[in-house]
Amino acid sequence: MTRSSFSAPVPHPQALPVTTHSYLARAAESLSEAMTTPEVPARYAGAHVSALRSAAALLSARARPAGPRRRAQKNAWVLLAEVAPELAEWATFFSAGAARRAAAEAGSSRAVTEREADDLVRDADRFLAVVEQCLGLVPHPPLQERIARAG
């Protein structure tokens, strides 16, 4: 499958599919939950799920089936790198954390450290803003800005 068979121009923000907006809302919700949970594994898993939902939002806006032939299934991170090559580094980064997320979701308290969970929350927050910008939307305020306003 070539990149050109998958990518399509991004429609005007008001013409984005409803699913795109739904994934973005769910990504923000997961991120908010990750920011507020005191449990380290849940914080990491929530941040990773937020990033996955952000990727799904972009894929729902840009990805188009290549044709009627069946293709091997690919995970969202592989598809994201194909559909949005400018986000390939993000895709690689979040793909590398999938096993840790699975361990964290399984309840392993040693899967991630508090620092790793906090770092992933910040990274997922940045990634959501990048996806919003790629979709022609105004990015949400960064985590640090929201914390400063609340404090």
Distance between the termini: 49 Å
The biggest beta sheet is recorded as:
none
Radius of gyration: 16 Å
Which outline best applies? globular
Number of strands: 0
Walk me through the topology.
Blueprint: H1 3-6, H2 18-36, H3 40-62, H4 76-83, H5 88-96, H6 98-105, H7 114-134, H8 143-150
Question: Could you characterize what this model shows?
Answer:
The chain has 8 helices and no strands. The longest helix has 23 residues, at 40-62. It has helices at 3-6, 18-36, 40-62, 76-83, 88-96, 98-105, 114-134, 143-150. With 151 residues, the protein is an all-alpha fold. The protein is globular, with a radius of gyration of 16 Å.
Keyword list:
globular, single chain, 151 residues, disordered N terminus, 8 helices, mainly alpha
Question: Briefly, what is this?
Answer:
This protein has about 150 residues and is mostly helical. The chain has helices at about 5, 20-35, 40-60, 75-85, 90-95, 100-105, 115-135, 145-150.
